[in-house]
Amino acid sequence: RKFNVAVVGATGAVGEELFRVLKEYNFPINKLVPLASARSAGSKIEFDDKEITVLELTETCFAENEVEIAFFSAGGSVSEKFAKYAVEAGAVVIDNTSHFRMEPNVPLVVPEVNPEDIALWKETGIIANPNCSTIQMVLSLKPLDELYGIKRVDVSTYQAVSGAGKTGMEELVRQMQDFFAFQLEDAEKKAFAHQIALNVIPQIDVAQPNGFTKEEMKMVKETQKIMHKDIQVAATCVRVPVLRSHSESITVTFNDGVEVDVEAVRESLERFENVEVIDDLANNAYPMPIISTDTDITYVGRIRRDVYQPNIVHFFNVADQVRVGAATNAVRIALKWIELGE
Ligand code: A2P
């Protein structure tokens, strides 16, 4: 059976990628309904060699178009205001924003990790897509937790500007152009608090009372919710001048008494769905954004046992933020939802 599918935020970075992923995965679409603000209503998107007109997001647009699956990626406040109209019209909402993620009766899903949670969708009509940094991290934590049992995770991220949407990507490109025109000092700053070209910024999202940022605390709470386990997580989230793949330096502490076998770690990661290991340091082979960009794979490498403690392993993890961290995970959720009988 085929579905009427809406994309809210159709003109954004994630929205545009969603159309590509839907096409590549041969998603069973009856009617596609691109939605955005009044600013973009009337513009066209291309899908399957056809042009489709973008409609204005309104309270009634879901019912009018008999939408059955609605992807939301237009920011938390848009989801807050409009998701209920999609649900009322009978659609399942797959929400890319952080708005519903921590609500106890809303499933937070990475299909390779906790597909069973999708069943909870009936309670609210909503399935939440986790934060991009969380998605790629739990894809490598899940097989390691099954192997040895994880106690604690310490992670530093190197996050691409695509996490701030099109505005973020345009800001990096413009500042690079300004640099070559010797005008970088006056560069416009909209998406980030500081210049991002030729810089790194150790802040993503707003400050929390405990000294961490909101992004860092998302990685804590979302990891625990997805893994169904009170794993200790400490994150440092850093914005870097990379276009669209996030990297993460991850240290995992396993339960007391575990003696890490690096080969076993490598094999468990290699076996896991949509994870690939690139790990040959002597030949300069490891995951990097230029490898992961435009792919649906989470790459892991630089796997090594701690020098002091046998129950600790360190590794590097890289994935495309727009795809693995957003559009592809959303489409995989929808496909799983269909497979599980809606
Ligand atoms: P628009 O282009 O009409 O502003 P990004 O994450 O790349 O910044 O994209 C954000 C997406 O969310 C865009 O498609 C944008 O549409 C859409 N959007 C933002 N605010 C609203 C709103 N109030 N109503 C509907 N769509 C919105």
From TrEMBL:
The active site is at C132 (acyl-thioester intermediate), H246 (proton acceptor). It catalyses: L-aspartate 4-semialdehyde + phosphate + NADP(+) = 4-phospho-L-aspartate + NADPH + H(+). NADP(+) binds at T11, G12, A13, V14, R39, S40, S162, G163, Q321. It comes from the Bacteria. Phosphate binds at R101. It is an enzyme of class 1 (oxidoreductase). GO terms for biological process: 'de novo' L-methionine biosynthetic process; diaminopimelate biosynthetic process; isoleucine biosynthetic process; lysine biosynthetic process via diaminopimelate; threonine biosynthetic process. Its EC number is 1.2.1.11. GO terms for molecular function: aspartate-semialdehyde dehydrogenase activity; NAD binding; NADP binding; protein dimerization activity. Belongs to the aspartate-semialdehyde dehydrogenase family. Catalyzes the NADPH-dependent formation of L-aspartate-semialdehyde (L-ASA) by the reductive dephosphorylation of L-aspartyl-4-phosphate. Homodimer. This is Aspartate-semialdehyde dehydrogenase. It comes from Halarcobacter ebronensis. The gene is asd.
